[in-house]
Amino acid sequence: MDTTDHNSRERGLRTTVQRRLETIVRENRVTIAFVFPVVGALTLIASAEGLLPEPLAYNPLLILVGTAVMRSPLVVGILPRIGWRALACLGVLTAYTYAIELVGVWTGWPYGTFEYTIQLGPMLVDTVPLALPLFFIPLVLNAYLLTLLVLGEWSRQPLVRIPVAIGSVVAIDLVLDPAAVAIGFWEFVPAGGFYGVPLSNYLGWVLSGTVAVLLVDFAFNRSSLLERVERCEFVLDDLVSFVLLWGTINVVYGNWVAAGVAGLFCVGLFRTERYDLEMLKAALSDRLGRSANEPSR
């Protein structure tokens, strides 16, 4: 078989699959970025308050499926820029994610003493969720991509973009951990002063965020990645889902500082000039139009 023909067919197949995935995400933006996180927040709050029956309360399958769906715009968005170097770096980051979390649970370093109080799906050595990279790595990627877009030309400078990206990762945890503690995902012993989260947790996130951002920064060609992010309008929809899900939970439980940080991410997203009422109305109109044209069964 001619190698050139084989490579050409392979590229054609990848392009076809990529375009199909983009179409699926684009046609379901409102459902993925808005409906899923709102329903997820209500479900988790109802679970925490004992309002759901046992099969549904904290259902790990629903949590994993919901998380995977909300991550899909990010994954599909950056997929064309994931080469062998990116795969290797993300593999190292995955291993690091498991290692630092296991050390954290077993020793209390670097985050402070904590433990998972519910099972978020299958658990690795009965200690941390097997799906942990699905929960953590996209948060780092979202922070990094938002940093590139908001900084603009300043993102060319590594001494600017890397500290800002690390700060964004830590800010994401300022939103995540108070809400997760409030609904009983995990707990710190003793409870910390920031809505139950200790300062040590954020010092630990500075360490984790630094390692993760450095790996992500090395994994991708910055200009190529930025060009892709600028053209792909839905690539940050996962961050929208994150803000809606965890921001809502923080508001419900009165974690106002954490909710305010979620609001700052909203400001950053608006600065990318891809999220406004017109975008939402257009997406809703497109969705309703396709629904009306679908044949009844």
UniProtKB/TrEMBL annotation:
Tree of life domain: Archaea
Keyword presence, Transmembrane helix: yes
TM stretches of this protein: 30-48, 60-79, 86-109, 129-152, 164-186, 202-220
Keywords: Membrane, Transmembrane, Transmembrane helix
InterPro entries, sorted: BABR_hydratase (IPR053540), CruF (IPR017823), CruF-like (IPR007354)
Protein's name according to its UniProt entry: Carotene biosynthesis protein
Natural source organism: Natronorubrum daqingense
Organism lineage: Archaea, Methanobacteriati, Methanobacteriota, Stenosarchaea group, Halobacteria
